[in-house]
């Protein structure tokens, strides 16, 4: 028995080793490396949690809805594991506003945040020999979930010079009869891209050709402030089946409430196969969803949040993205190939040959944390070595301060600067 257990543990380590960098894990290590002083407080632009900054706060109606739900004493028990009926209906109605085919409540499964929706999607699709196509750069939780489910990960590149579009030729070359899905994150994390209608349509047509489905991660849905409006992938559900993953976290600025969803956009009925539906329901029985009283607040939150709240968030993100790009232009040794048009983050390229005593992106971020008390995410954490991810969902004053410190750091560590001494 001990021998088997040892073998099992070794195998697990072997499978997981490439995937065990998590964003939270590496940010924790970076935070431990900072030295806050009275003069220099720690500024983190590493995590996509805008609630750390007082300029981003959730709408009053959301708080009122949760308080009302809790005070009613009606929602202290278990909810159905697939979610409360009124919550499923509210989300189906909300997403249907932009879809050609109306969703029904049964298409919606309520999850504990979008992370659990990812776990649910991969778990129900997993089968022996399966592989999944993931974007690089992307969100590392997909690879981590895949490792736990023994799903092989195959990466396709996003192209920085083309607005981080999907390399569709690479997708076709990577796929085979064991491909269970293509993951598309739009608006993009970590790149800040927003895909055009024609590009999303091409992705759906590629999935149809490859006889697979699209897993559409829309956790940043509607957070678009550039030339391209946000287009939900579910619009193309009649071309290829789409599993849409989303949450209240980013648009309503409540990531800690853990209210997400998995939705089947599938007018042709492939994902409505009774066996598949039963599989989803059984998996929901295992994992349990978010707190019942939070679920009960969702219909009021969705119906009563005013457009002015969303516009304010969008305007603030547009402003902070602008600050970020303008400041980066002044900083030696780094460049931004694509100005973000959505979500809350941007990828910035490190030019290591121009830098003294910096070996890679991890080294860069650790030294920056130690010397300047600024936390940025090394690109390796999202699959792109020698890049860094900067989250611009911060108050403008803190953002400018952090980027000023980043500039000082880059000047100190650039060959050009060191040549002058």
Automatic annotation (TrEMBL):
Q: Which GO terms describe its molecular function?
A: L-tyrosine-2-oxoglutarate transaminase activity; pyridoxal phosphate binding
- Needs which cofactor? pyridoxal 5'-phosphate
Listed CDD domains: AAT_like
Residue numbers of N6-(pyridoxal phosphate)lysine PTMs: 250
Quote the InterPro entries the UniProt record gives: Aminotransferase_I/II_large, NHTrfase_class1_PyrdxlP-BS, PyrdxlP-dep_Trfase, PyrdxlP-dep_Trfase_major, PyrdxlP-dep_Trfase_small, TyrNic_aminoTrfase
GO biological process per UniProt: L-tyrosine catabolic process
Among Gene3D superfamilies, the record links this protein to: Aspartate Aminotransferase, domain 1 (3.90.1150.10), Type I PLP-dependent aspartate aminotransferase-like (Major domain) (3.40.640.10)
Swiss-Prot/TrEMBL keywords:
Aminotransferase, Pyridoxal phosphate, Transferase
Q: Which PROSITE patterns match?
A: AA_TRANSFER_CLASS_1
Residue stretches making up the Aminotransferase class I/classII large domain: 40-406
Q: Which family does it belong to?
A: Belongs to the class-I pyridoxal-phosphate-dependent aminotransferase family.
Q: Which PANTHER family does the record cross-reference, listed alphabetically?
A: TYROSINE AMINOTRANSFERASE
Question: What is this protein called in UniProt?
Answer: Aminotransferase class I/classII large domain-containing protein
């Amino acid at each position: 028995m001990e021998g088997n257990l040892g073998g099992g543990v070794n195998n697990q380590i072997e499978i997981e080793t490439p995937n065990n960098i998590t964003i939270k894990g590496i940010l924790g290590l970076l935070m431990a490396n900072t030295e806050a002083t009275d003069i220099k407080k720690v500024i983190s632009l590493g995590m996509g949690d805008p609630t750390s900054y007082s300029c981003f706060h959730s709408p009053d109606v959301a708080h009122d809805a949760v308080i009302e739900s809790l005070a009613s004493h009606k929602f202290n028990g278990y909810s159905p594991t697939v979610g409360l009926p009124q919550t499923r209906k509210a989300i189906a109605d909300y997403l249907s506003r932009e879809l050609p085919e109306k969703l029904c409540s049964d298409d919606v499964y309520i999850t504990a945040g979008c992370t659990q929706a990812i776990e649910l999607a991969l778990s129900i699709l997993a089968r022996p020999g399966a592989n999944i196509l993931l974007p690089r750069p992307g969100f590392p939780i997909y690879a981590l979930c895949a490792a736990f489910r023994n799903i092989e990960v195959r990466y396709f590149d996003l192209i920085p010079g083309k607005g981080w579009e999907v390399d569709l030729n690479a997708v076709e070359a990577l796929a085979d009869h064991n491909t269970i899905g293509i993951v598309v994150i739009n608006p993009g994390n970590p790149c800040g891209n927003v895909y055009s209608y024609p590009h999303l349509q091409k992705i759906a047509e590629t999935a149809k050709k490859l006889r697979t489905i699209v897993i559409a991660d829309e956790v940043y849905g509607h957070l678009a402030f550039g030339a391209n409006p946000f287009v939900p992938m579910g619009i193309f559900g009649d071309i290829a089946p789409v599993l849409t993953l989303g949450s209240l976290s980013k648009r309503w600025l409540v990531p800690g409430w853990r209210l997400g969803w998995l939705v089947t956009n599938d007018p042709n009925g492939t994902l409505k196969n009774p066996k598949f539906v039963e599989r989803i329901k059984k998996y929901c029985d295992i994992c349990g969803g978010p707190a019942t009283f939070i679920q009960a607040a969702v219909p009021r939150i969705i119906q009563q949040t005013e457009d002015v709240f969303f516009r304010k968030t969008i305007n603030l993100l547009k402003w902070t993205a602008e600050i970020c790009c303008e400041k980066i232009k002044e900083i030696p040794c780094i460049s931004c190939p694509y100005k973000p048009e959505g979500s809350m983050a941007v990828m910035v390229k490190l030019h290591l040959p121009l830098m003294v005593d910096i070996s890679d992106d991890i080294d860069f971020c650790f030294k920056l944390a130690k010397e300047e008390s600024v936390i940025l995410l090394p690109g390796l954490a999202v699959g792109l070595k020698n890049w860094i991810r900067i989250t611009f969902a911060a108050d403008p004053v803190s953002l400018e301060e952090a980027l000023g410190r980043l500039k000082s750091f880059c000047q100190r560590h650039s060959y050009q600067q060191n040549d002058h001494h």
